[in-house]
Amino acid sequence: MSVDWDDISFVISSRYRVASLRRLADGPATPSQIAADEDVGIAHVSRALQALRDRELVELLVSDHRKKGRVYGLTDPGEATWETIEDEGLA
Prior knowledge:
The protein is mainly alpha-helical. It is built from five helices and two strands; from the N terminus they run H-H-H-H-E-E-H. It has a two-stranded antiparallel sheet with strand order 1-2.
């Protein structure tokens, strides 16, 4: 899969997007789990996840109607983006 450098630039320009992808690379998680594991504010994580979702780097694994316990995971492009970020030492 070809890597989109615009996506990489987008991710690494925010420590919250980096933190969210880093945590999701270990497996699906809720925003509160990401915030706790990465020691960042949940409001920042929620905004980062929405931005990452808009770029199709992460996906909501539960129904859109669910307000609590929203579990997110990486998409295939999200995984490729994170692997490149790690391989190139960008985060």
